Amino acid sequence: MNAPTVTRRPLPVALAGTPLAQEVAGLDLCVHCGFCLNACPTYLALEDENDSPRGRLVLMRALAEGTVALDDTGVGTHLDRCLGCRGCETACPSGVPYGALLEATRATVAGVRPLPWQARAILGVFGRRPLLRSLLAVLRVLRSSGIASLLSRLPGRLGQANAMLASTAPALPPRRGTATRAPEASARESVALLTGCVMHGLFGHVHDATRRVLVTNGYTLSDASGQQCCGALHAHAGDRDGARTLARANIAAFEQSGATFIAANAAGCGAMCKSYDHLLSDDAAWAARARAFSGAVRDTSELLAAAGPVAGGPLALTVTADNPCHQQHAQRLVREPALVLAAIPGLDVRALEDADQCCGSAGIYNLIEPDVAARVLAPKLVAIVATGAAFVVSGNPGCHMQIGAGLARARRVQRVVHPIELLDASYGRRD
Ligand code: SF4
Ligand code: SF4
């Protein structure tokens, strides 16, 4: 595959004042070396340079310089197909801020090329808490009644959506009771849990486990009421105003909690909250508050790593860990999630080939671009099955549902679990 021909034109950009114009310096860092190509799931799946990081950066430059119209559908297709996984960022030796460039480009394009109606409908629901909570309540009924599992056998998007929903049912027996600080744990800071939207509605058992393991490791819990969706779906889709509105609501909610740290147990939400400082950097009323907020956000694995974590009781399970992109690429966390699993005696952790590759979930991507998402997922499923592990570990709800649905629709028996669920189950063995 040949590298694209790059025509350098003088900056400043033609689209002064747009989000892309504000980020355009990042484009200059790209030296077109191509080291990112094999880290890009869409390039590997589609074998088109325009669907690679290097190719998309060339397209972004063309948009920024005005040599291609913002509403060019061909360019839009290649940008839409990007997962936003940021695997290219960790592979890039030049420090190209790809994620920020992608979000800025999508926000700029969204001004002239409306999002597909499906995306607008989903983002509209996620931006309205009462509506979202009602929808999630209905989804819980579909899940607990077994209807979702039944409908997951249907072909197409309906079957896929129901398989995703069915995969959110707890895979481990519930652990009852309240946790207390382990005798060997020191008293630590106060923490408020980022409850989020899908995590709150469909992964309440993971939130319960998170609260217990934090207490076991010496943290005290604070309540941050009034939280909203983190806004990641909106920011990644180009709805920057929607993301900002949600960010301000969350900052206000956590300020009143008085907590030292904000704990995120969903990698995508944690990465988004850590970027509120960037999202609101040009908002004079909120910039300092956003910086303080982002500085306090921690992935739960970071808090646990700082505390040890406390070792659990024996748990004789075979697992393989898939690293969520927004944990390893966006937050650069690899050691901390590994420490969580290492605190579980007896756990048989099997290496997963290409664990650093995206699974194709990417927020609402697998609902908007189902064909590409399925092609990206296919090698991941093969690698998971090859490990022979009974459980796949993932610390992100989108990845959980994408992989869980893929396994179920391939008639595989493996289940997906959150690493904190495993640690919590292990703590249950030491009580
Ligand atoms: S690795 Fe970085 S510098 Fe090289 S082509 Fe990719 S984005 Fe550009
Ligand atoms: S974010 Fe992921 S899908 Fe998009 S260009 Fe980078 S590696 Fe490829």
Gist of the model:
With 431 residues, the protein is α/β, with parallel strands linked by helices. The protein is built from 24 helices and eight strands.
What order do the helices and strands come in, and which of them pair?
Layout: H1 19-23, H2 41-46, H3 53-65, H4 73-80, H5 87-91, H6 98-110, H7 117-126, H8 129-144, H9 147-151, H10 156-166, E1 190-193, H11 198-202, H12 204-216, E2 220-222, H13 232-237, H14 240-257, E3 261-264, H15 267-274, H16 276-279, H17 287-296, E4 297-299, H18 300-307, E5 318-321, H19 325-328, H20 335-342, E6 348-350, H21 365-368, H22 370-387, E7 391-393, H23 397-409, E8 415-417, H24 419-428
Parallel strand pairs: 1-2, 1-3, 3-4, 5-6, 5-7, 7-8
Helix pairs in contact: 3-6, 10-23, 12-24, 18-20, 22-23
Bound molecules: iron/sulfur cluster (2 copies).
Based on the structure given, which CATH architecture of the largest domain is correct? Answer: 3-Layer(aba) Sandwich
Helix content: 40-55%
Task: State the major sheet.
Answer: 4 strands, parallel
What molecules are bound to this protein?
iron/sulfur cluster
How large is the radius of gyration?
21 Å
Query: Oligomeric state of the chains?
Result: single chain
Number of helices: 24
Task: Count the E strands.
Answer: 8
CATH class of the largest domain: Alpha Beta
Unreliable sequence segments: 1-8
Q: Mean of the pLDDT scores?
A: 93
Number of domains: 4
Folded structure, characterized:
The chain is of the alpha/beta class and 431 residues long. The protein has 4 domains: 92 residues, Alpha-helical ferredoxin (Fumarate Reductase Iron-sulfur Protein, Chain B, domain 2), CATH 1.10.1060.10; 46 residues, no CATH class; 116 residues, no CATH class; 120 residues, Rossmann fold (3-Layer(aba) Sandwich), CATH 3.40.50.11810. The chain has 24 helices and 8 strands. It has a 4-stranded parallel sheet with strand order 2-1-3-4. Helix 12 crosses helix 24 and helix 22 packs across helix 23. It is globular, with a radius of gyration of 21 Å. It starts with 18 loop residues before the first helix and ends with a helix. The N terminus is likely disordered. It binds iron/sulfur cluster (2 copies). One iron/sulfur cluster binds next to helix 3 and helix 5.
